[in-house]
Design a protein that fits this description.
There is one protein chain. This protein starts with 6 loop residues before the first helix and ends with a strand. It is 46% helix and 26% strand. The chain contains 15 helices and 16 strands. The protein has 4 domains: 113 residues, Beta-Lactamase (2-Layer Sandwich); 107 residues, Beta-Lactamase (2-Layer Sandwich), CATH 3.30.450; 87 residues; 141 residues, 2-Layer Sandwich (Heat Shock Protein 90), CATH 3.30.565.10. The C terminus is likely disordered. A hairpin with a 4-residue loop joins strand 8 and strand 9. It is α+β, with helices and mostly antiparallel strands. The radius of gyration is 47 Å and the shape is rod-shaped. The strands form 3 sheets. A 6-stranded mixed β-sheet has the order 14-15-13-12-11-16. Strands 2-1-5-4-3 form a 5-stranded antiparallel β-sheet, sandwiched between helices. A 5-stranded antiparallel β-sheet has the order 7-6-10-9-8, with helices on both faces.
Length: 494
């Protein structure tokens, strides 16, 4: 579609365009600078009527600091040295408010009368965007300057070349290297890494395609400026840009957290050692008390029983009150001997000294005898070599688990499996009761029994877990480190 071909149609078309345009357009008398015409956008933005604005010149609403520049530009147009000029300024509205504009000015004629044509664009939105961007950059710089580490950007072009585009000034505090120096030579960072930590750095680097500092890594560096070792953590996120790939990263100083972590590990190790020592002392004390009960109390009761037997043999024949008392005391001594044997056995069963497999088998038989709950026991054929501490720990864990089953589980069947897998001992105790979640919901107090089992396992470098068994019930699982395996499995049922 072409433009109108006669002057009247062209004039009408131009008037329509000027009327509907959002760009301000002015026709200005070149001699007096009086405004001859202004389109609706100009009148609306400046808040004047056409009659009012015809009494004004651009100098009446132009920013006062730019009046001299406007006169210079006017002279350049009138002298013919320039055909078009531009000026970034601001217009003042009738109500006194102002807004920024980008104005272009050129000289024309109308009916042999020289006119300046001024075209002004309101750039308020652009200025607001510029200020917002400036504020954002300022906020970003403030955030970056306050992080406990260094921010950086790694850029890789489509041709594969990589550069360190940005490094925050914190590089001096974190690495002892100025940002400008590090940008010029990124490999300086690698030279700071301690030799023993470099393999993990290179291994992580290899997974990322070879771009430095483009991954999540934690390690130690030597800062020559302070003659000190620091722990650093590198975290990076990747994004695509038109020119290639950008990685935005942050390198944090995590020395204090690492030191705290190491202190916690040392404290836990000390607590574990203390727990192991306390348990060892307790078991030794139980052994001593069991021996005293068996040897001293049992020996004395046996001597009394022998004495009563001698008295019974030397009494006159026939029933008498003295014979009845003697027989009664003999019965009490038998009961006391049984109780002493039971107490000594509970404190330190002698069968533990014969190996963990017969010890667990003995314990399960007593469990079934007392509660009438059948059991199934499978164990490695032959003996599993355990030292005294490990044997006692496993025995006590089984004892505590069976006690919990007796008190809370309401089970009708128990299964125990003990096996050796390479260099680990695996123990599983399963019942078909109500399960651990229901038991815990009914017993709000913390289970010190489970805590004790866990501490026993941890003291020996093992782990213990309590979870729901498949179907129903509870599964207690124990893993302890061991030596070489023995393969065969035997099954025992009751």
């Amino acid at each position: 579609m072409g433009l109108a071909k006669n002057p009247a149609e062209e004039t009408t078309l131009l008037q329509t365009i000027l009327r509907e345009s959002n760009t301000e357009v002015f026709a200005i008398d070149a001699e007096s600078l009086r405004i001859d015409q202004a389109n609706p956008a100009a009148l609306s933005n400046l808040q004047y009527t056409l009659k009012e604005i015809r009494q004004l010149t651009p100098l009446d609403f132009l920013h006062e600091d730019h009046e001299a520049r406007f006169r210079v530009l006017r002279g350049l147009l009138q002298s013919g040295k320039r055909r078009r000029v531009s000026l970034d300024t601001s217009f003042r509205r009738k109500d006194g408010s102002s807004y920024p504009v980008e104005m272009r000015l050129f000289l024309s004629t109308h009916k042999s009368k020289p006119l300046f044509i001024a075209i002004a664009n309101d750039v308020s939105a652009r200025e607001e965007s510029r200020r917002a961007l400036a504020y954002s950059e300022s906020d970003l710089r403030a955030i970056v300057s306050n992080i406990p580490g260094m921010a950086y950007q790694v850029f890789r072009k489509h041709d594969g070349s990589t550069s360190l585009r940005y490094v925050s000034e914190q590089s001096s505090m974190l690495l002892g290297i100025k940002a400008k120096t590090l940008r010029a030579k990124p490999d300086l960072f690698f030279e700071l890494i301690l030799p023993e930590d470099r393999p993990s750095y290179l291994a992580t680097l290899a997974k990322t395609g070879g771009s430095h500092m483009t991954f999540n890594w934690e390690g130690r560096i030597w800062v020559e400026a302070w003659k000190d070792v620091k722990w650093v953590n590198i975290r990076v996120s990747q994004r695509e840009v038109p020119e290639g790939i950008m990685w935005d990263g942050i390198m944090l100083n995590v020395t204090h957290s690492k030191q705290n972590e190491e202190e916690i590990k040392r404290s836990r190790a000390q607590l574990s050692a203390l727990t192991s020592h306390v348990e060892s002392v307790k078991e030794q004390e139980r052994l001593n008390i069991a021996r005293e009960i068996h040897d001293d109390l049992g020996g004395n009761l046996t001597a009394v029983k022998i004495g009563l037997s001698w008295l019974a043999r030397h009494m006159p024949p026939g029933p008498s009150e003295l014979r009845e008392k003697t027989e009664y005391l003999d019965s009490v001594i038998d009961q006391t001997l049984d109780a002493a044997h039971r107490i000594a056995s509970n404190m330190r069963p002698a069968i533990v000294d014969f190996g963990i497999v017969p010890a667990i088998e003995w314990q399960l038989k007593r469990f079934t005898l007392n509660l009438d709950i059948p059991y199934e026991f499978s164990a490695t054929h032959g003996q599993i070599p355990l030292d005294s501490d490990a044997s006692i720990a496993v025995f006590r864990i089984v004892q505590e688990a069976l006690t919990n089953i007796a008190k809370h589980a309401r089970a009708s069947r128990v299964s125990v499996r003990l096996e050796r897998r390479k260099d680990e001992l695996h123990l599983e105790i399963v019942d078909n009761g109500v399960g651990p979640l229901l038991v815990r919901s009914k017993n709000h107090k913390k289970s010190f029994g489970i805590l004790g089992m866990t501490e026993r396992a941890a003291a020996l470098g093992g782990t213990l877990s309590v979870s729901a068994a498949p179907g129903s019930g509870t599964l207690v699982s124990l893993q302890l480190p061991l030596g070489t395996p023995t393969p065969h499995i035997a099954h025992k049922k009751q």
